[in-house]
Each structure stands twice: as structure tokens, then as C-alpha cells.
């Protein structure tokens, strides 16, 4: 094996340094928020002057916030399920379909990912107003499903592209129908990708504020919208405690995916 030259070592060290700095920029803000959530005093400061769980206890006693968390969890589950039900057939059509306009259909299905969430939120609001459909959690589920659908499609497409189509052909040659082939051959191979797609969709739907701000029900607001209004009138570490819970939930979902599926398997 050829030994590394001094220039190779220099570029390797520079790359590691830049990668570590980028990782620090990504992780450090979350760590600061989590640290602030344990501040015992009634105002935000960093570093915290001590350690206290009173802001987490106050969240449990705040009925409005607990209701918002429940609303967000419910909406996120619905969005994830709708995304899987619609996204998997769409991915099949995009990867294995042979029909005119396939490229245009793929661009149309993935276009919501290219748009800011605020654009989709405002468009959903005006679309609902045109048909006398007021802002509600049903509208929020529909808008978030449109916004998150490309996540499911792209992940499923990546997995489908790596599958051997000869397995389906072999199943058909043995007498299995298309539905049986999908259920017994294709679906088990798609399991890791579907779990990951559902997890990513759940996280995005739970944390999304740009779409929810324009389409959610004012009487049952999801957590991101509730936090948006709370930030304007509250400067206590309770805001950091809510944010820390969201960070923890996202980390927990990804940890479950990593332990049960393995993130390195998603592209295989």
C-alpha cells in the first residue's frame, strides 16, 4: 500500500477539521437549547446557573401545551400513514412503470419538496377558502401530506432501484399473482425503507411550523404553532424545555430506526 504524502495528510486533516466544524455548527445549537432548559431562574441564560427540572414539571401542568403535544402526535401519525399509502404506489410507478409522461409525473410528485413550506401553507389556506373549507386539523393533515409525500417517494424509489426485478419474475413464474408477489417478495425487502420513510415523515410533520401556521385549527393548535405564539409572549426556559422535548423525540425516532433497521441499509 502506497504511503501517504505530506500533501495527502494535509488535505485529510483539513477535511476532518471542516467536517468536525460543520458537525459542531449543526449540533451545538441543540445542545445549548437543552442546557438552557435546566436553568432554575425564570429567564433564559447560558450557561445555566444551576440544574432544575421545574420547567419540565410546569409543562406537564400546562393543559394547553399537553393538548398541543397530543394534537401534533395524532396529526403526525395520520400524515405518516397517508404518505406511505400514497407514496409507495407512486414510487412503484416512478421506478417500474412504463408509460408516456413518466418523467413529468415524477417531477410533479417530487415538486412539493422544492417549494418552501410557507408557499404550500398559504396555497392550502386559499384553496380551502375558495371551497369554504376553513382552517382545521383535517386541512393541516392534507397540507402536510402533500408537503411530506416526496420524502416517502424518494426513499422508496431509492430502495426499489436497488432491488432485483428477477425476484418478482421468478415469483410470477412459480404461479404467484402480482398482489401475492408484492406481499411476499417485494414488501419484506422494502421494510427498512418504509420504516425510515415513515419515521422521517413523522418527524417532519411533528416539527413543521410553516405549513401548520396557516392551516391548523385555532382551537386545537399543534405544538409548533403553540410554541410560535408562546415565544412572542414568554421568555422563560419553558420554551427551551419544549424545544428539548422535540429534539429528544426526533432523536428517539431516529435511534429506533438505526437500531431496528440500520441507517446504512436504507440505500441498499
UniProtKB/TrEMBL annotation:
GO terms for cellular component: plasma membrane. It comes from the Bacteria. The keyword Transmembrane helix applies. Gene3D superfamilies: MetI-like. The chain crosses the membrane at residues 69-95, 107-132, 138-157, 235-258. Residues 69-257 form the ABC transmembrane type-1 domain. Its main location: membrane. It is a multi-pass membrane protein. Keywords: Cell inner membrane, Cell membrane, Membrane, Transmembrane, Transmembrane helix, Transport. The keyword Mitochondrion does not apply. It is found in: Cell inner membrane; Cell membrane. One of its GO terms (biological process) is transmembrane transport. Belongs to the binding-protein-dependent transport system permease family. This is ABC transmembrane type-1 domain-containing protein.
